[in-house]
Design brief:
Structural class: alpha+beta
Strand content: 15-25%
Number of strands: 20
Shape: globular
Distance between the termini: 33 Å
Number of helices: 9
Length: 374
């Protein structure tokens, strides 16, 4: 079973030219956002009602513009991969969904509560979202929506017109801009309060395609079968559910006790292998694998293996038991380029604001990596 992480990640920006060649005018700025780790998505070339267009014009508005976004932003040094689309005016149809699906694995709509249950596969070409509108009590309603998605409260009598509240769920939030002015633009304070409240609810806050890819991938991974290769080795393979998925989809995976017992007996020293690397579980038995690799091997840990489960807690415990052994923290940019050593999981003040990766390592332990922000 694949399980999601819990943390705050970057934000998505869906781009449209709005009939004014905005992409070329502000390409450098959009590329800067992408280099900071933010998602860049497609919102069509001219922001028209897509349902009123012919299929040929739809392709120009959606597919051609997605390719143009990638080309322009990559020319400014950003490694952009357009995988998601947001419908202008949330106007959808079978033809619109068909064309969008040719180039994007997920398509955002709206008009509902935006909740999506973990084990119920949604319609990926029409993902509902909970839209922000500037009406009285808007912020209170938004926070309540986050509580509902986190399943905090009493929902025994709830009976909404669809998608009844019965468990924690994904929730997609939509707004058309962050500003103190303008109708239906969320204020910076309201946005910060929403993030803070989501974190307090122990929710994972991440861009649309990041969560969407994790959500979609888990249906594929949960259905994958382990094939025996000898007595103590099993291989699991799967296919990407869509050709336009993110290049990397890290997933949290936990093997069921029943599988371990039936496959390996009572031995709980299980490791995974992927792309030539051995993956060790954390102290809760959770492995982090790369879904885009499309294969993983499950086996018993070698008796001679000297690598222990990787977790920050394990590393700190090892250092406390052997003070002469030090943790090394290496700072890297989002592309994995080494920027030097740092003190703990903190970005030095002299570094520009943005997203970074810090790798912690100690002798005898597999390394830990974290995405951090300054």
């Amino acid at each position: 079973m694949a399980k999601p992480p819990t943390h705050v990640d970057e934000e998505p920006f869906f781009l449209s030219n709005m009939g004014a060649d905005i992409l070329n005018l502000y390409g450098a700025e959009f590329a800067y956002l992408a280099r900071q780790g933010h998602e860049i998505g497609n919102h069509s070339n001219n922001h028209k009602h897509l349902t009123s267009l012919s299929e040929n014009n739809l392709r120009k508005e959606v597919i051609d513009f997605a390719n143009e976004i990638q080309q322009v932003l990559n020319s400014y040094g950003a490694d952009v991969n357009i995988t998601s689309n947001a419908l202008p005016f949330s106007a959808n149809s079978e033809q619109v969904s068909k064309v969008v699906n040719e180039r994007h694995f997920i398509n955002r709509s709206s008009w509902g509560n935006g909740r999506h249950n973990w084990d119920e596969e949604p319609r990926w070409t029409d993902m509902d979202s909970r839209a922000w509108y500037s009406w009285p009590n808007a912020e209170e309603d938004l926070l309540k929506a986050l509580d509902t998605a986190a399943y905090i409260g009493d929902f025994t009598s709830s009976n909404p017109w669809y998608n009844p509240v019965k468990s924690p769920a994904w929730v997609v939030l939509l707004n058309h801009g962050v500003s103190y002015m303008g109708e239906n633009h969320i204020t910076p304070e309201a946005m910060r309060n929403a993030f803070k409240h989501a974190v307090e609810n122990n929710m994972w806050v991440a861009p649309f395609s990041t969560v969407g890819a994790y959500y979609r991938a888990h249906f594929t991974l949960d259905a994958a079968q382990a094939v025996a290769e000898g007595n103590d080795k099993y291989t699991v393979t799967w296919e990407m559910p869509h050709k336009d998925m993110p290049k990397s989809i890290p997933m949290k995976v936990k093997l069921t006790p029943q599988f371990i017992e039936e496959t390996f007996g009572q031995d709980d020293s299980i490791v995974l292998e992927q792309d030539g690397n051995t993956i060790y579980p954390d102290e809760n038995g959770v492995f982090t694998i790369e879904f885009a690799s499309q294969q993983v091997t499950i086996r018993k840990a070698s008796k001679s293996a000297n690598m222990k489960p990787y977790s920050v807690l394990s590393i700190k415990k090892q250092v406390s038991l052997a003070p002469n052994e030090n943790i090394t923290y290496t700072l890297m940019d989002m592309k994995g380029n080494r920027l030097g050593e740092t003190n703990g999981f903190e970005v030095p003040a002299h570094q520009p604001k943005g997203a970074y990766i810090i790798r912690a390592a100690a002798p005898g332990f597999a390394p830990v990596t974290r995405k951090v922000f300054r």
